[in-house]
Automatic annotation (TrEMBL):
Keyword Transferase included in the entry's annotation: yes
Alphabetized UniProt keyword annotations: Transferase
Superkingdom in the source lineage: Bacteria
Taxonomic lineage of the native organism: Bacteria, Pseudomonadati, Pseudomonadota, Alphaproteobacteria, Rhodobacterales
Organism: Donghicola mangrovi
Keyword Nuclease listed: no
Protein name according to UniProt: CoA transferase
Single GO MF annotation: transferase activity
Length: 400
């Protein structure tokens, strides 16, 4: 059972924001049907780090669960006719192509609503559905450059740095889910079926709401990044990462007197919290000197005793040994079609203390084509004819 039981979603999405949003909807009960080209969606044929497990792309593992797959030739009139039959039964159509792509296929908003006036249409684009940048490629690292995220990451000494993951894609996915659920709620209350538009540019700006707002409202700044080891331009020292003899420790909110006692730095004892802002560089350099004399274990003990907020800097392997990650069941292990273990991130929200189950593994290409078409009203002979004509395929293959 889930919050969206009985809601059918047609997902015309390719990696990453769209499929991630669709998976989230599937996790909470929606019947998500991913509509793929005959050769398969991008995420099943390409993998980050070129990593496939049981011939399944790690990208497909990331976003493919709790969905069904139908593979259709969308350039065929018969294929579009079949999709329109599915639209009759759906509550949501979602896509993250460049603006105008579905229009060219005969699936414009007006054509979709002519088939089903109650349908919610959700688009996730790079820069919006219109405007001077609408046709640009919406890719995470390019958006990091445009929106200030790269310019505000790193240090003034070393220059801008790209974030080492794809946070904009994931935040755009979360906003898409929120928009779709809001639109579904409104439709049930008022009967109005909205169009939901999310773009990665505003998602990237929303990720930085605190710092952008401070910057735009005249906050004092020496530059867009931190100096002397500071993690950013707007926090009081010593907010940042500091090297120890055998690793690195992040220090968060603290006062100079706290650090004076923790690191035996008497120069900090009389400084006020306000001077954490005005003397950022001086404080940060002193803390760096003090931390460099300690091992990680020694630093953690001293910072803990002084009440300084801190955390050891770890890579992803550290998540496997993290007791809170284990407690939250933040990973789910499942078995792939050839017996290998798939390690997935669990759905990140609990409902009455429970994590939604994985009902279905990432599907093979067109794995449910027959059953989806049958549910849309096609009889067995019609389905056979579509498959024989190559308009629809059903396979047990994870990729071409």
């Amino acid at each position: 059972m889930g919050a969206l039981d009985g809601i059918r979603v047609l997902s015309f999405n390719h990696f990453l924001s769209g499929p991630a949003a669709a998976q989230h909807l599937g996790d909470i009960g929606a019947d998500v049907i991913t509509i793929e080209p005959l050769t398969g969606a991008f995420q099943r044929n390409w993998a980050v780090a070129n990593r496939f497990v049981d011939d399944t792309s790690v990208n497909h593992i990331t976003t493919g669960r709790n969905k069904r797959s139908i593979a259709v030739d969308l350039k065929s009139p018969e294929g579009i006719a079949a999709i329109k039959k599915l639209i009759e039964t759906a509550d949501v159509v979602m896509e993250n192509f460049r603006p105008g792509t579905l229009d060219k296929l005969g699936l414009s908003e007006s054509e979709i609503r002519a088939v089903n006036p109650r349908i919610i249409i959700a688009t996730t684009t790079g820069y919006g559905v219109d405007g001077p940048y609408a046709k640009r490629p919406g890719q995470d690292v390019l958006l990091q450059a445009m929106c200030g995220l790269a310019a505000h990451t790193g240090s003034m000494e070393s220059g801008p740095v790209a974030v080492g993951s794809v946070p904009i894609d994931h935040h755009a996915a979360a906003l898409t889910v929120a928009g779709i659920i809001a639109a579904l709620f409104e439709r049930e209350r008022t009967g109005v079926a909205r169009r939901v538009d999310v773009n990665m540019l505003q998602a990237a700006m929303d990720l930085q709401g605190e710092s952008i707002t401070a910057w735009m409202n005249g906050a004092e700044k020496a530059g867009p990044r931190g100096q002397d080891g500071m993690a950013n331009w707007f926090s009081p020292a010593p907010y940042g990462i500091y090297a120890t003899k055998d690793g690195h420790v992040m220090i968060s909110m603290s006062t100079p007197p706290q650090l004076s006692g923790a690191l035996n730095l008497p120069q900090l004892a009389e400084l006020s919290a306000d001077e954490g802002f005005s003397k950022r560089g001086e404080i940060s350099r002193l803390v760096a000197t003090g931390m460099a004399t300690l091992t990680i274990d020694e630093a953690v003990e001293k910072l803990t005793d002084a009440g300084v907020w801190h955390e050891v800097v770890r890579d992803y392997d550290g998540l496997l040994d993290n007791p809170q990650v284990e407690h939250l069941q933040a990973f789910t292990d499942t078995i792939g079609s050839q017996g290998s273990t798939f390690k997935m991130l669990s759905h990140p929200v609990r409902y009455d203390g429970e994590v939604p189950p994985i009902r279905t593994m990432p599907p093979a290409l067109g794995e449910q084509s027959r059953e989806v078409l049958a549910e849309a009203g096609f009889d067995a002979a019609e389905i056979d004819r579509l498959i024989d004509a190559g308009v629809v395929v059903q396979t047990n293959k994870m990729r071409n």
